[in-house]
Specification:
Helix content: 10-25%
Number of helices: 2
CATH architecture: Alpha-Beta Complex
Distance between the termini: 25 Å
Number of strands: 9
Structural class: mainly beta
Order of helices and strands: EEEHEEEHEEE
Largest sheet: 9 strands, mixed
Strand content: 35-45%
Low-confidence stretches: none
Radius of gyration: 15 Å
Amino acid sequence: MLNTTLCYIEKSGKYLMLHRIKKENDLNRDKWIGIGGKFKDKESPEQCNLREVLEETGLTLTTARYRGIVTFVSDECETEFMHIFTADEFFGELKECDEGVLEWIDKEKVFSLPIWEGDKIFLKLISNPLEPFFSLRLEYCGQKLIKADLNGISINI
């Protein structure tokens, strides 16, 4: 089981998004995703989130909120626990990322980008600052979302 973090950094009604176009053999190739990556040994979700954001963006988060966990199930790769964070306070200068192109995107426009179908579910959840911590299970066959459960209850997709 793979553990990763995914952070949606917000500024002026925009999310900092990563367009994954630089790596070959990338499950996320050509998709737009948040900022994050794989846990290192002995890291907590919070430590991994801070490290990955700094490594990929050059930004240091001064606040981050742990919003939920997504169980990503696919017939093409290992099952993954994605620990979802949001942040809106940070410092530093944005740098070039070796995994793709970083761009500030209007939050409403993110849904029209090539993103995973399941991302639309949790992006709606994190857009509400009062939304409680959630557990979302997303099951894919190839690139197609075939099942979604929110807090253990099946939802329409």
